[in-house]
Amino acid sequence: MNRIIAALSIIALSVFGAQAQSSDDGALEITVAGGEFKPISLAAPGFFAAPGDATDLAAQIRDVALADLAGSGLFRVIPPEAYIQQLQDFDAEPQYADWQAINADALVTGNANIEPDGRIRVQFRLFDSFAAGQVEGLQFFSDPADFRRIGHKIADAIYTRLTGEGPYFDSRIVYVHESGTKGKRVKRLAIMDQDGANNRFLTDGRQLVVTPRVSPDDQEVVYISFERGEPQIFLMNLATGQQEVLGNFPGMSFAPRFSPDGRQVLMSLTKGANTDIYVMDLASRRLRQLTDSPAIETAPSYSPDGSQIVFESDRGGGQQIYVMSASGGPATRISFGQGRYGTPVWSPRGDLIAFTKSGGGQFAVGVMRTDGSDERILDSSFLSEGPTWAPNGRVLAFFRESAGANGAASLWSVDITGRNLKRLAAPGAGSDPAWSPILP
Question: Which SUPFAM superfamilies does the entry mention (predicted)?
Answer without folding.
Answer: TolB, N-terminal domain, Tricorn protease N-terminal domain
